Design the sequence.
């Protein structure tokens, strides 16, 4: 009986200690809604006209619209263009661009032959920091790899490439 009383005393003692050691507080939560990013392609990425010779090669267009070649490629004076996008809804945010990290294929009008693009580059004005009331203009460049004329016959090649714009 003495053991039962001692046990009951300890249970009551510990339950009072546990209950009296509590504290409550209200935390603060917040959220901020930012404008939706709007993107429009203003100018298509164009490598212009060229002819691959026996060795093939590559053609690069920089984000500033400058074209260079490597390998056995003959280019015409046909205009080339960097890809240009406008991005809206970025006031007071830092904008980032995610470009392809694997080759992107464009296909001949016959649907069989292809060339691939890689080595993507971007020109982000103002380091990606937005200015209130102004849309961003983002320029994109890439390199296209061209096989010899036997594998890349004469004709138009085209395709699409993914670009993801996001706030940081």
Sequence:
């Amino acid at each position: 009986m003495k053991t039962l009383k001692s046990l009951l005393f300890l249970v009551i003692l510990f339950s009072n200690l546990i209950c009296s050691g509590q504290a409550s507080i209200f935390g603060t939560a917040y959220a901020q809604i930012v404008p939706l990013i709007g993107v429009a392609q203003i100018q298509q990425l164009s490598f212009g006209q060229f002819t691959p010779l026996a060795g093939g090669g590559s053609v690069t267009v920089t984000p500033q619209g400058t074209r260079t070649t490597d390998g056995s490629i003959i280019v015409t004076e046909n205009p080339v263009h960097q890809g240009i996008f406008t991005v809206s809804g970025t006031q007071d945010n830092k904008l980032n661009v995610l470009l392809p990290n694997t080759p992107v294929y464009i296909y001949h009008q016959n649907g069989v032959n292809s060339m691939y693009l890689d080595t993507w580059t971007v020109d982000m004005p103002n380091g990606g920091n937005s200015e209130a009331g102004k849309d961003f203009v983002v320029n994109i460049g890439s390199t296209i790899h061209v096989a010899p004329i036997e594998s890349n016959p004469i004709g138009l090649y085209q395709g699409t490439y993914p670009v993801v714009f996001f706030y940081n």
User: Anything to note?
Assistant: The chain has one domain: 37-167. The beta strands are 38-43, 50-61, 67-75, 83-88, 95-98, 104-108, 114-123, 136-146, 157-158, 164-167. The mean pLDDT is 86.
